[in-house]
Design brief:
Layout (H helix, E strand, L loop, with lengths): L4 H12 L16 E4 L2 E5 L12 H14 L14 H14 L3 E5 L2 H12 L5 E5 L4 H10 L2 E5 L4 H9 L6 E6 L11 H10 L3 E5 L13 H4 L8 E6 L9 E5 L1 H10 L1 H4 L6 H16 L1 H20 L11 E5 L3 H13 L2 E2 L2 E2 L8 E5 L6 H13 L1
Parallel strand pairs: 2-11, 4-5, 4-6, 6-7, 7-8
Antiparallel strand pairs: 1-2, 3-9, 8-9, 10-13, 12-13
Helix pairs in contact: 2-11, 3-11, 4-5, 6-7, 12-14
Bound molecules: pyridoxal-5'-phosphate.
């Protein structure tokens, strides 16, 4: 007998714990208001922090690239799948990050699962924050290096582990902004430690690029400089409103990744319209300081209101604001009540997080009224 019945019983078990997920698709573009079914919702679930995903200039740049270079890339970068836009995006990204070089990769997930195995191997040790993104976790697993998890943001724990592991290649891996709690890693201390112990620092800057440090990311936020022993990855899929990811580092590191990162070597280059959209998004990010200002004004406003209402927003210090709930059912029920009121704020459940929550994300394109409507709805919920 074919054993696919195990999937059915597995789903039954998930259902008993209210852990079955379902896909929700939009009938509109991404933005502060989205259409699902036949109804418009205020959207508090998007990582499109600056509203660039449907910015007319970004869309225009993608259209132009579509006409000039076509819809698909047809091959890996190593087999001329890329076009001149790819190289241009790499120079621009290196410029943004202040590194010698950068490499455009397929997605944030592909970057983490490709880069980590290229820079760590059996015999090496990776020290990884306990709340790192799943793609960092999977990258560590794929590397087959020994991975030791340190307590979230705990630099003393990290130092003790570094001290106990002299000799051999050591790598510290951390998200800069944690995607479910919205807190920022203590990068000053982490940088100092990695340097003192001669380790490599691997940063996942997915939620910081285009958000922190005037858009340059988390290092800039702390006034830290790029260093040859720091390797950063980030994405074009969040604040930059497009798709794809990058590695930014010194030249030899990038050349090494070109030759060894399997998710780069064995995967088709990003489609030209996505690359052109990222390039235009970088232009807008660097040209319009007002966008970041609005993002942070909105963030401060909503965080203040939520705290005044007595919500537990945890450690949040970025546009990611979790409302922690006591159990999965409570989180689902609140999310459902908001949905009835025309507000999309989904519940995040295990295994994505340990503590169930509503994860709100604030963007620059939300109006004051949008934020007020959420607050009102929460008050009445
Ligand atoms: C979203 C995210 C990724 C994955 O990026 P994609 O481009 O969506 O694949 C990786 N790391 C972190 C921290 C993220 O939040």
């Amino acid at each position: 007998m074919i054993e696919y019945s195990v999937f059915e019983s597995g789903l039954d078990k998930l259902a008993q714990c209210s852990l079955v997920r379902k896909i929700t698709d939009r009938a509109s573009s991404q933005g502060p208001r989205i259409v699902m079914g036949n109804r418009e919702y205020l959207n508090f679930a998007s990582n499109d922090y600056l509203g660039l995903a449907s910015h007319p200039e970004v869309v225009g740049a993608a259209k132009e690239a579509l006409e000039r270079f076509g819809a698909g890339s047809g091959a890996s970068r190593l087999l001329a799948g890329g076009c001149t836009l790819h190289g241009e995006l790499e120079s621009r990204t290196a410029g943004l990050k202040g590194t010698e070089a950068a490499l455009v990769m397929g997605s944030g997930y592909a970057a983490n699962t490709g880069i980590l195995p290229a820079i760590a191997a059996p015999g090496d040790v990776i020290l990884s924050d306990e709340l790192n993104h799943a793609s960092v976790v999977d990258g560590c697993r794929l590397s087959r290096a020994e991975t030791i998890v340190y307590r979230h943001g705990d630099v003393e724990h990290l130092e003790a582990l570094l001290r106990g592991r002299q000799g051999g290649r050591r790598l510290v891996a951390t998200d800069t902004v944690f995607s479910m709690d919205g807190d920022i890693a203590p990068l000053k201390d982490i940088c100092r430690l990695t340097k003192d112990y001669g380790a490599i620092l691997y940063l996942d800057d997915a939620h910081a690029t285009g958000v922190l440090g005037g858009g340059k990311g988390a290092l800039e936020h702390f006034g830290l400089e790029p260093e040859p022993w720091i390797i950063e990855m980030g994405t074009f899929s969040k604040a930059l409103g497009s798709f794809g990811a990058f590695a930014a580092a010194e030249r030899n590191t990038i050349d090494w990744l070109i030759n060894t990162a399997r998710s780069f070597m064995f995967s088709t280059a990003l489609p030209p319209p996505a690359v052109a959209a990222s390039l235009k998004a970088l232009d807008i990010l660097q040209r319009e300081a007002g966008l970041l200002e609005r993002l942070w004004t909105n963030r401060a406003r909503l965080a203040r209101e939520l705290k005044a209402m007595g919500f537990d927003t945890g450690r949040s210090e970025t546009p990611i604001i979790p409302l922690t709930m006591k159990d999965v059912r409570e989180a689902l029920a609140l999310s459902a009540r908001l949905f009835e009121k025309g507000i999309y704020a989904p519940a995040i459940r295990p295994p994505t997080v340990k503590e169930p929550r509503i994860r709100l994300t604030v963007t620059a394109s939300q109006s004051r009224e949008d934020l007020d409507r959420l607050v009102e709805a929460l008050r009445g919920a």
